[in-house]
Amino acid sequence: MPIADRRLIGKRTGPTICEYTWKDVVLYAISVGATPRELSFVYEEAQGRLKVIPSFCVVPAAQIFPLFDEDIDWPFMIHGEQVIRLSKPFPPEGKIIQTGEVVDIFDKGSGALFHVKMTGRMPEGDHLYDAEWFLFYLGAGGFGGDPGPKTVNINPPEGRGPDFMITEKVAENQAILYRLNGDLNPLHLVPEEAQRVGFDKPVLHGLCTYGFATRAIINGLLDGEVSRLKMFKARFADIVYPGDTLTTQGWKSGHDIIVQVKTERSMVLKNALAVIE
Fold first, then answer.
1. What is the pLDDT of residues 1-24, one digit of tens each?
2. CATH assignment of 6-276?
3. Which of 19, 41, 122, 272 is the most buried (most CB within 10 A)?
């Protein structure tokens, strides 16, 4: 496995223009579990206009993802954390001017942690979103770099039940749907590739689980008002398989929501915090 190349720090992409339509918005919604009961997410002529799930921003953002190295073995690149920040809701179709940057590369010993940030603005210049990826490249550590900041644990308040809880079944074909958004890592589809990394079978995209959680926050606590979600960050703590059941819970404290997502086996999203207005 190649050692991470710190010369990539500061590498930029863009600005480039991304154009999307309502079909891209609806595909994303379906790929993170939206059903016909959520017409505002899946029907282009929904009363009051088609709404865009805020985590959709990761789809156009991925189009300008900086290429680290042509030798990267992508099934060994595991999603560690994700952060999104929204200045305004996405329109149901339009154009975005986007840039990307490799912010830093941390040495975690057993692997390298890539911190990558993408930013999107409207054509008229208004800021739309920031999206940050923290990707763990298995086997690429040990280059003597900075280990990075320590994690600050975010836990629910003791002795208090969640303010919302939503349980949903992940479809057996969910990863097939999600990869149509542009994440074609074979780890999520090809059994041999998943087994090569050490998994029994293909795993669900971490960002698909993240999208399920975003939907749950909007439906469970925000009455479907996508404009109220301003930030959502989460750590990917364990894998999800297509066919699993996801339970998303949230504890509200002012403008903050502490979020946890678990399957039948384990906690899969933790250290998660959403900021709302």
1. 456 677 788 989 989 999 999 999
2. 3.10.129.10
3. 41
